[in-house]
Hints:
With about 550 residues, the chain is an alpha+beta fold. The chain is about 15% helix and about 25% strand.
Amino acid sequence: LADTSHQARSVSSRPYYSLPNSSHERRSVLAIAEPPRFHSQAKGKNVRLDAHSRKATRRNSFCNGVTFTNRPIHLYEKVRLKLVAVHHGWSGALRFGFTIHDPSQMSSEEIPKYACPDLVTRPGYWAKALPERFAVRDNILAFWVDRHGRVFYSINDEEPILFHCGIKVSGPLWALIDVYGITHEVQILDSMFAETMTTARLSTARLSTCLPQSNHDSANFNNNELENNQVVAKIANLNLSRVPGLGTDNHIIPCCPNRRQHAQGVPAFLDTDLRFHPTRGPDVTFSQDRMVACTNWQESNRTLVFSDRPLHIGESLFVEVGHLGLPYYGALSFGVTSCDPSTLRTNELPADPDFLLDRKEYWVVYRAFPVLNSGDILSFMVLPNGEVHHGVNGASRGMLMCVDTSQSLWVFFTIHGVINQLKILGTVQSSPGTVSPSGSPGGSQYDSDSDMAFSVNRSSSASESSLVTAPSSPLSPPISPVFSPPEPSSSKNGECTVCFDSEVDTVIYTCGHMCLCNTCGLKLKKQLNACCPICRRVIKDVIKIYRP
């Protein structure tokens, strides 16, 4: 008995950050140490604890749910959380990690609304988001840190996932838990010790640490937008309740604006003859009818997909985006090309579509789409004047680019980032009278989210005059300046109006004037409120012209 008590005292007197030397010693620590609880004082203003401080509930909103454990956590000690309540409608899920800062020394004013990014941008805090696909009611999350400063987590005692690296383990560590987003209530369970990771198991777990984290700012923005909409709806309900004869309907308060009925932005009748072309990136799989393209989440680099026929002038293409709940970030890319996909081979398709610009065909790539949500419906239409317009959920977003409509154009996408799925809904052909050459109604021709978020190459078959307009300047205005064709006997195109030395080889967007060399054009573009030396219009970009 004396030896046992001596062993127990020596173990319990160890610092929390020390490493138990054996599985027996680890069990001894757990037998003596009190199970962790939530800190009763250091918590967000929306957190409510039960009488035993084992259960934390977020009462209002989607944020202000930051909590900490009441004591430091041993190395290899699993912090086990049961997801008691999950309320869908918000974006994002539980955030968790560790901190070297003692919660007892924190004041309520020091605890911010969000763990990510508010806390993790401060020294001594490490946390990330639980992927939403794991945020399921009654799931048990366990996370721990090893002596190398690596954080692992597991769901329902399945294989561990390497979550974070570089944790400072030279001092005590408290667990940090943010009851965020769809996670509404969590309960701390009794601790367990994790086994030391073998090399084989570590190589399997290492994959998940390389997965990019979800965009915390995007989730916070979406949730704040939703909360504002709910307040407006509640006020509207309150006003309606004061009108005699009108009852309130709580169901009209939006659950989530991003989960609204997107079908309202889609025509009632769509042609379904356009599908994805069989030629595709090796990391993409198609549905049997080639209407849906999905990425392989473990390896989703080369994800180019094409339409199986050219898009007609005045024809609108409708696609629906979706994601599989993976913790990725990034965006969808869209483009048009004169290249028939049947002439391509899978091993020729790169991960970055910009590499296609070196090919001899005509390629234009646009990659600056705004943050998209699962279920959003995008539309694309090529107008007779070469403008490509797009819309989101039935709302016009203006012009993306200007393209050469003198040749057949296939559309293509790269599916990456948070977008892991793309579904072709169909197409609709506009009658000639309904296609406006000046752009789609409800938006100006330059109201897209990013005017110059594209890349373009030049078709080898394009004429010299076309290089000065649409193909070389994808966002040229509908009425472009008319340039005289170069004289065959001379290779010069005039002197730069700035340096009066180099040859003019750059066109100014949006006015279209060619009066600069590329060196002076780039310098002028960097200046504040840069203007065209000829017409004084604002310079949005400069585009170098390559002549045969």
